[in-house]
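Structure ticket #2291
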Amino acid sequence: MPKTFERTRKAIAKKKGAVDSLHQFSRDSKRLHRAQVRDEKLEKIAASRRKNDKPHLERAAFFQEALKQNGGKPLQTDVIQELIKSFVHQYDEELDEVKKTRRPGRPASAKEDLLKVKIDKLQKEYQNGFLIPVLDAEENAALLNRWEGSWSYLTTLTWVRISSAGIVQPSSFPPRGEH
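Resolution: structure written out below.
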């Protein structure tokens, strides 16, 4: 949480006394305004970053849960492929439900369009190489098992891209660009 505004307000209060005695176009009121705008900008950037990071955190949490169900032991390649397929098709039921509730002859809702885009994006990524942490190595499985949900911890894991054909390619985290 940005604190520039609070620091500026405190500095002005220390110098002058009460902050509410400033007139509209004074230097100190301009300082306060700049600090407030800066805080809002930083908060907006942080919210945007959290929004962009959320899918990767959800993905890591999904595979962490699969590891925990396996007792924290590494997974076999065929099990990993099945997990990827279930992750890719996790929105299918919700999409079918939204389609059923839509009356005949009506255009698709915004929610239906978003679900279609999500599903298509996941399927395309799976064909080209689906980014996941390495689940078949003991060391990485133990690291993922200990993960507590923070973004910074994910960089300590080893990541790979697994295609639908079964081709495994090493990758880096966070991912750069579209694959």
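Closing remark: The helical segments are 4-16, 27-69, 77-88, 92-101, 110-128, 138-146.
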